[in-house]
């Protein structure tokens, strides 16, 4: 290994790595644009792609040259410098692949950017934002030498249950919005040359049932993963679309999940991996296991799992024994190896890629793992404008839910502000409380000391710094000559101080949170750290307006204290600066709810999570989850899907739906989904249009939405489905026409008898909307082909 290019050093026999080529980086920072603030551009040059068919051929020829042990090396996970590594084949130039999370920024290392979570960024309803943010995350993975990003999350969990501890890592419970963003995120990831791994496949809608919560290392005791009991129609119409779009976008890898699919572990489900993913969706990449999700050798290999990540080791020597016994055929091992190598070649990595420059979790300069020595170079590969971008991204994702007495933006008459709550404060440490922010609970609940900018577990990314609300508000106060006072503890012992302060200010800002973590689903939908009681006490004592800021990765029931509310999600490291800019009116809030907030916990669909053994979860509601459940059952939400206020006002008019054929042009990998009639399943057949006008006084953004109702013959369908959205920035008085293309699949339902997509007969209804419940425009038509 040449010293000039060696970025990590270890016993070569352990992983068989010889040498690595280095891709230089350059800064290409796009200019800030006022009307379209997110314009994608790459800071690091992408690898040179290779046509997929050529890559498959090159991979097959490599496989022909490989020994049995070398094929087992490629398909089996190993310990190494990364979160996971595969074995290598040095004599053929095949390195140990480096795998790393995650969708909020690269995990386990330093000098990286902590971006807003997927759950938060989707609240922007902004395709350009999702594209650029994903590209930036991928660039940082690439610069650290990662081959495969374990992300983005493309529907596992989708968000069936509001209690699921990992909902904050994913996009949204709506399959249309989730699939649109999943396509963009996969394509943006791979535009950099990084291999995207769509996860978690699939029906992974709750965490395990365990004897106690995870410890500070994520360890769990006496756990049993959930059994997702679901029917075919629900799978095809609700839980599969995001993975179908991931395949269409050309995803190189898919991760099988922990849960059982009906009665079979997901990573050994022949129906899920072979029949649906590889045949029906025509997925050409490889399926890899989640960590510890493998439960067998021959069964998993024959069912379609191509590679196992460590640390369960059902492949390797066990797979070798299964081959000798004839339980797995040699042809299957060859296919597994070819599938693993194909995206590595197709995305250009085989022709030049960086070596890992970091070590998993440990930030020491020299790290020894199982006798192997690794160098941690602490490289900083962030773009110069990374901080500014994160702030702008966070600004576009804050959702103004209620603006009581028009208290926001903060006027010049407000001179004295009180800030309350531990969530406004600095966290104890940037790394929080252990590996991946797995915070040990107190009295059965997680206690996060300080502002919450990201959740815990696989999706966590360590920030290089964090701007809490109190820092940004104090700085703003100094600049404007304001008095910013504070009580940053939620302890009732502080109530006498809170009472005195609240009586003396003109505005009270209460910052509260819910910290969600992988492996531990929520017990209720309340705030952490006595947050609900804190809000009620401050509201009772405050001499002025009350504004509540919520940092959470899921819904919060707020009927006990409903006041002015901003839902900030998990906004990443620039949290405080983004919040201050919105509070003081530098930026108009424009986020929209990508899930439903109920008035009562019991309003959510019943039996949506199991906490006992055996944890069999029956998806009896079919496709009616989130807002579709509320619509179907006639339940009034507190804040509906698609809802969000701005500092301006917008009007929709002139809804039209015209027949307009546009052949599909964005498919990277064609699926084999069966459908009735002519035209491709992803061809656009109709285009809906609506005018949106800013009738207020502030330059702001609105998200016009299109909802569709199927003909009355489809009795099992919820009342409405999202079928279009766009984010538009308009100056006062400005008007624009927004288009919503309607593809054949968008108009279709799944026929379980014929096993195909078809467009039902009868009149469709389309709604031009501000949200799923604010539907001012309506038109009906019969679809003609």
Automatic annotation (TrEMBL):
<dbReference type="GO" id="GO:0005576">
    <property type="term" value="C:extracellular region"/>
</dbReference>
<comment type="function">
    <text>Beta-glucosidases are one of a number of cellulolytic enzymes involved in the degradation of cellulosic biomass. Catalyzes the last step releasing glucose from the inhibitory cellobiose.</text>
</comment>
<keyword id="KW-0326">Glycosidase</keyword>
<dbReference type="GO" id="GO:0009251">
    <property type="term" value="P:glucan catabolic process"/>
</dbReference>
<dbReference type="Pfam" id="PF01915">
    <property type="entry name" value="Glyco_hydro_3_C"/>
</dbReference>
<dbReference type="Pfam" id="PF00933">
    <property type="entry name" value="Glyco_hydro_3"/>
</dbReference>
<dbReference type="InterPro" id="IPR050288">
    <property type="entry name" value="Cellulose_deg_GH3"/>
</dbReference>
<dbReference type="InterPro" id="IPR001764">
    <property type="entry name" value="Glyco_hydro_3_N"/>
</dbReference>
<comment type="pathway">
    <text>Glycan metabolism; cellulose degradation.</text>
</comment>
<dbReference type="GO" id="GO:0008422">
    <property type="term" value="F:beta-glucosidase activity"/>
</dbReference>
<dbReference type="InterPro" id="IPR002772">
    <property type="entry name" value="Glyco_hydro_3_C"/>
</dbReference>
<dbReference type="InterPro" id="IPR026891">
    <property type="entry name" value="Fn3-like"/>
</dbReference>
<keyword id="KW-0732">Signal</keyword>
<keyword id="KW-0964">Secreted</keyword>
<keyword id="KW-0624">Polysaccharide degradation</keyword>
<dbReference type="InterPro" id="IPR036962">
    <property type="entry name" value="Glyco_hydro_3_N_sf"/>
</dbReference>
<dbReference type="InterPro" id="IPR013783">
    <property type="entry name" value="Ig-like_fold"/>
</dbReference>
<keyword id="KW-0325">Glycoprotein</keyword>
<comment type="similarity">
    <text>Belongs to the glycosyl hydrolase 3 family.</text>
</comment>
<protein>
    <recommendedName>
        <fullName>Probable beta-glucosidase G</fullName>
        <ecNumber>3.2.1.21</ecNumber>
    </recommendedName>
</protein>
<dbReference type="Pfam" id="PF14310">
    <property type="entry name" value="Fn3-like"/>
</dbReference>
<keyword id="KW-0119">Carbohydrate metabolism</keyword>
<dbReference type="InterPro" id="IPR036881">
    <property type="entry name" value="Glyco_hydro_3_C_sf"/>
</dbReference>
<dbReference type="InterPro" id="IPR017853">
    <property type="entry name" value="GH"/>
</dbReference>
<feature type="signal peptide">
    <location>
        <begin position="1"/>
        <end position="24"/>
    </location>
</feature>
<feature type="domain" description="Fibronectin type III-like">
    <location>
        <begin position="702"/>
        <end position="772"/>
    </location>
</feature>
<keyword id="KW-0378">Hydrolase</keyword>
């Amino acid at each position: 290994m040449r010293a000039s290019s060696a970025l990590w050093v270890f016993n070569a026999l352990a992983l068989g790595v010889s040498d690595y080529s280095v891709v230089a980086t350059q800064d290409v920072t796009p200019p800030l644009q006022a009307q379209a603030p997110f314009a994608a551009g790459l800071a690091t040059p992408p690898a040179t792609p290779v046509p997929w068919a050529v890559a498959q051929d090159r991979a097959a020829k490599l496989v022909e040259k490989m020994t049995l042990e070398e094929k087992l090396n490629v398909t089996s996970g190993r310990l190494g410098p990364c979160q996971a590594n595969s074995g290598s084949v040095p004599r053929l130039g095949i390195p140990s692949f480096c795998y790393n999370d995650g969708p909020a920024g690269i995990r386990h290392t330093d000098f990286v950017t902590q971006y807003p979570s997927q759950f938060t960024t989707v609240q922007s309803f902004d395709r350009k934002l999702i594209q650029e943010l994903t590209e930036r995350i991928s660039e940082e993975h690439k610069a650290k030498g990662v081959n495969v990003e374990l992300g983005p999350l493309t529907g596992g969990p989708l968000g069936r249950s509001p209690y699921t501890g990992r909902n904050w890592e994913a996009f949204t419970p709506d399959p249309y919005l989730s699939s649109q963003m999943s396509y963009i995120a996969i394509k943006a990831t791979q535009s950099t040359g990084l291999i995207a791994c769509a996860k978690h496949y699939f029906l992974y809608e709750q965490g395990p049932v365990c004897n106690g919560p995870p410890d500070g290392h994520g360890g769990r005791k006496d756990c049993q993963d959930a059994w997702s009991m679901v029917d075919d129609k629900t799978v095809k119409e609700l839980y599969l679309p995001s993975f179908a779009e991931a395949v269409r976008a050309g995803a190189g890898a898919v991760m099988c999940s922990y849960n059982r699919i009906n009665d079979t572990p997901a990573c050994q489900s022949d129906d899920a991996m072979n029949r649906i993913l590889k045949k029906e969706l025509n997925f050409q990449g490889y399926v890899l296991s989640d960590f510890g999700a493998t439960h067998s050798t021959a069964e998993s290999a024959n069912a379609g799992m191509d590679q196992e990540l460590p640390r369960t080791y059902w492949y390797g020597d066990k797979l070798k024994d299964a081959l000798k016994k004839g339980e797995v055929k040699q042809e299957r091992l060859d296919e597994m190896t070819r599938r693993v190598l194909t995206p590595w070649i197709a995305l250009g990595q085989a022709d030049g890629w960086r070596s890992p420059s970091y070590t998993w979790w440990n930030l020491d300069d020299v790290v020894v793992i199982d006798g192997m020595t690794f160098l941690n170079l602490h490289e900083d590969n962030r773009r110069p404008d990374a901080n500014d971008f994160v702030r702008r991204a966070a600004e576009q994702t804050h959702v103004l839910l209620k603006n009581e007495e028009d208290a926001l933006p903060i006027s010049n008459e407000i001179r004295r502000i009180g800030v309350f709550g531990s969530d406004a404060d600095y966290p104890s440490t940037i790394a929080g409380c252990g590996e991946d922010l797995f915070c040990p609970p107190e009295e059965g609940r997680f206690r996060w000391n300080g502002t919450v900018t990201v959740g815990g577990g696989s999706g966590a990314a360590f920030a290089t710094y964090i701007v809490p609300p109190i820092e940004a508000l104090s700085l703003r106060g100094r600049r404007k000559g304001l008095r910013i006072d504070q009580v940053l503890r939620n302890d009732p012992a502080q109530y006498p101080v809170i009472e005195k302060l609240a009586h003396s200010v003109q505005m009270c800002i209460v910052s509260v949170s819910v910290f969600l973590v992988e492996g531990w689903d929520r017990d209720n939908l309340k705030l952490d750290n006595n947050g609900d009681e804190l809000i009620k006490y401050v509201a009772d004592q405050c001499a002025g307006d009350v504004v509540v800021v919520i940092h959470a990765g899921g819904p919060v029931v707020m009927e006990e204290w409903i006041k002015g509310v901003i839902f900030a999600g998990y906004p990443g490291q620039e949290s405080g600066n983004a919040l201050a800019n919105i509070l003081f009116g530098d930026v108009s809030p424009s986020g929209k709810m990508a899930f439903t907030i109920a008035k009562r916990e019991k309003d959510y669909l019943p039996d949506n999570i199991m906490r006992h053994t055996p944890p069999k979860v029956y998806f009896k509601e079919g496709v009616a989850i989130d807002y579709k459940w509320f619509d179907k059952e006639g339940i009034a939400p507190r804040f509906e899907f698609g809802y969000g206020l701005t500092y301006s006002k917008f009007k929709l008019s002139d809804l039209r739906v015209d027949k307009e054929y546009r052949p599909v042009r964005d498919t990277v990998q064609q699926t084999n989904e069966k459908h009735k009639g002519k035209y491709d399943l992803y061809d656009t057949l109709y285009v809906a249009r609506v005018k949106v006008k800013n009738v207020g006084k502030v330059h702001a953004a609105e998200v016009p939405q299109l909802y569709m109702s199927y003909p009355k013959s489809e009795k099992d369908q919820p009342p409405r489905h999202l079928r279009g959205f766009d984010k538009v920035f308009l100056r006062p008085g400005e008007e624009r026409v927004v288009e919503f293309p309607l593809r054949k699949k968008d108009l279709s339902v799944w026929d379980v008898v014929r096993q195909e997509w078809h467009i039902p007969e009868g009149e469709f209804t389309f709604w031009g909307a501000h949200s799923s419940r604010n539907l001012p425009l309506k038109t009906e038509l019969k679809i003609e082909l």
